[in-house]
Amino acid sequence: MTKEELWQATLAQLQFQISPANFATWLKNTYIFSQKEGQVLVSVPNNFSKEWLEQKYNKLIFKILRSLQGDLKEVSYAVERQGVKQKEAALRTPTLPQEPQLEFQELRVDKSTNLNSRYGFSNFVVGPFNELAHAASTAVAKSPGSVYNPLFIYGGTGLGKTHLLQAVGNQVAKDLNQKKIRYMSSERFTSGVVTSIRNRTIDTFRSSWRELDILILDDVQFLTGKDKTQEELFHTFNTLYERGKQIIFSSDRPPKAIAALEERLRSRFEGGMLADISSPDFETRMAIVKSKAQERNVEVPDEIASYIASNIQRNIRELEGAITRLIAFFQLNSRAPTLQEAKGLLKNVIQAPSKFVTPKRIIQAVSEFYDLKEKEMIAASRKQEVVRPRQVAMYLLRGELRSSYPFIGKRFGGKDHTTAIYACSKIEKELQASESLVEEINLIRQRIYSV
Ligand code: ADP
Ligand code: MG
Fold first, then answer.
1. What confidence tens digit (pLDDT) does each residue in 397-406 have?
2. Distance 87 CA to ligand 2 centre (A)
3. Taking the mean position of all CA atoms in its chain, how far away is CA 369?
4. Is a pLDDT exceeding 90 seen at residue 148?
5. Are residues 256 and 318 part of one domain?
């Protein structure tokens, strides 16, 4: 086997074991540079690929290579110095003009399923923070209605819930094209219920839902307090579930943290698989930047990708915003920006957290999360449903902004600093014992940083 054939065979196997997005990101432009006496040296295009392959995939690559070449002892990776030609090519690639994005995306939404074909598994980057949700989603896409039913995915804004939900729908639509699939936001579902009650068409409305094979309902936290809609959903759920149809939900928080949700609906939500998506780690943020840029035929220099990945941490939608700006630069100038230029381009997107996180923002995020009015939370009420959120808000002011206890006390209706100290230590203690509180506070943090 020549070294080219050996690497081709290795890549062919790797492809089945790594998500397509990761594969494209980390293994593109790699090849075996040399191979002798059991030593294989793989050439990689940059340091990030090198690190990633060494740290994450070395074992796997070694195993595959070993199965192909029995005398293998060691695999190593090296960055090849970019030849002049390669550099030139990289600078020339990205000038294709793009269609205006909005128009493009609207075109891709299917009228009957509401699915947007831009969301697939192949362009979804997987990392530790979304692994479980991704695994559950692919399992459901493979055999809808049988493995995890319902599937309930939750996590903060802009972290990929809608993408995953739609990817399941798109995958099933492709594999089994006679299936009836419908994706809908909970807000639209709600207005559907309201309108059909008003127009006395609720029967038609009902049956249109109950004949589905797959129902995907996004952002069910918006069902809070909508009793009629909840009731309608409850019955639709039961009908579908009894018929072995797949139901998928998403929410920005776990079912138990959705206020004003009918108990019977909550228990339905919790009856299947719950999977969370948290904030992406640095490596995955890098992978996302790279793969998004590649999708649009742009090669982002490593130092810029790394600058973006280090500075935008909590929200993938923002990462995309940054990439879009870079791409606009590429298109105008037919070259990559320098790091300095990139910093200029991104200065509205990237801000140091402490600059834009303010006490007001924290209080707002907490009160939104618990569905309270800010005033209620600040006022002197001792009702339990207010006391706990207030303590959480105090805890976050302390933790995220290092606010002093007297300041925190004052901010909450002129309370004494001992109240603030008590609140913080109480929450800290509870955090030791309650995983659900840890989760709750993480979700609030994501909100604070993600808007
Ligand atoms: P949410 O519904 O959780 O608010 P979205 O699914 O709308 O978030 O994701 C926001 C944007 O980030 C979308 O454009 C989506 O394609 C992208 N995105 C989210 N997660 C990933 C991922 N793991 N890999 C690639 N793109 C992602
Ligand atoms: Mg969404």
1. 998 888 899 9
2. 38
3. 19
4. yes
5. no
229: CB partners within 8 A, 6+ apart: 186, 189, 190, 193, 194, 223
Nearest to 21 by CA among 327, 316, 288: 288
Domain identity same for 254 and 333: no
**Amino acid in the structure at residue 56:** K
156: CA distance to ligand 2 center in Å? 9
Same domain, 305 and 198: no
Selection from 71, 67, 33 nearest residue 50 by Cα: 33
Among 130, 132, 317, 349, name the best residue to mutate to test ligand 1's pocket (greatest count of ligand atoms within 8 A of Cβ): 317
How many other CB atoms are there within 10 angstroms of residue 102's CB atom? 8
Residue 107, in any domain of the structure? no
* Residue of 159, 277, 278, 285 to mutate, ligand 1, most atoms within 8 A of C-beta: 159
Grade residue 104 by pLDDT with cuts at 50, 70 and 90.
very low
CATH code for the domain in which residue 22 is found: 3.30.300.180
pLDDT at 90: 43
Please tell me whether residues 442 and 362 are part of one structural domain.
Answer: yes
- Number of domains the chain is built from: 4
Which of 228, 251, 277 terminates a domain? The answer is: 277
Q: What is the CATH number of the domain that holds 227?
A: 3.40.50.300
> What are the backbone dihedrals phi and psi of residue 196, each rounded to the nearest 5 degrees, phi first?
-75, -25
Q: Minimum-distance ligand to the CA of 124?
A: 1
Same domain, 87 and 53: yes
Burial class (CB in 10 A: 0-12, 13-18, 19+), 301: middle
* pTM of the predicted model as reported, rounded to 2 decimal places: 0.66
Statement to judge: residues 143 and 250 lie in one domain: yes
